[in-house]
Amino acid sequence: MTKHIAIIQGHPDPNSFHFGHALAQAYAQAARDAKHEVKMIDVARLHFPLLNSKEAWELGDLPPALNNARATIQWADHLVVVFPLWLGDMPAYLKGFFEQVLRPGFAFAAGERGPFSKKLLTGKSARLIVTMGMPAAVYRFYFRAHSVKNLERNILGFCGIAPIDETLIGMVDAPDNAVREQWLAKVRVLGAQAQ
Q: In this model, does residue 114 exceed pLDDT 80?
């Protein structure tokens, strides 16, 4: 079955090619080869202000630069979010992107149980691909993958996106091309299966 896949590249550097970019490209190519439809959102190339008030978040207009990104998320059956771990969390610009795009009326709405209880993005699934300098096991078990869990529960899950799977890739700064190739191969399998 053909799926619509939106790949959100969350690295905030628009001028360099990082391992996360290679991972996103590997996933996209494998998905396209398997006849899935893929659209890319490169957050670093979008220009938008950060929100600084509740009123702006609830009532403000979506910046025009994000209209296509929002339409792509609406179109997608499956989201793939690729980002590096910075200071234990997603980069601030990626968080700002989610705050802008996933606003009331698009991602959730008032329901019988409260002002934000109706999840408007149900039926979509997601995969988080997170790169980091530390060993992934340290992040997962010692730090309990707190920021990834926050993204899963309090942002994507809050909007109804489920299931959400994660791929944590540690020690990306180590110059081991064989290990990088293994990760690219694993991501290609995920792309081919639209997982």
A: no
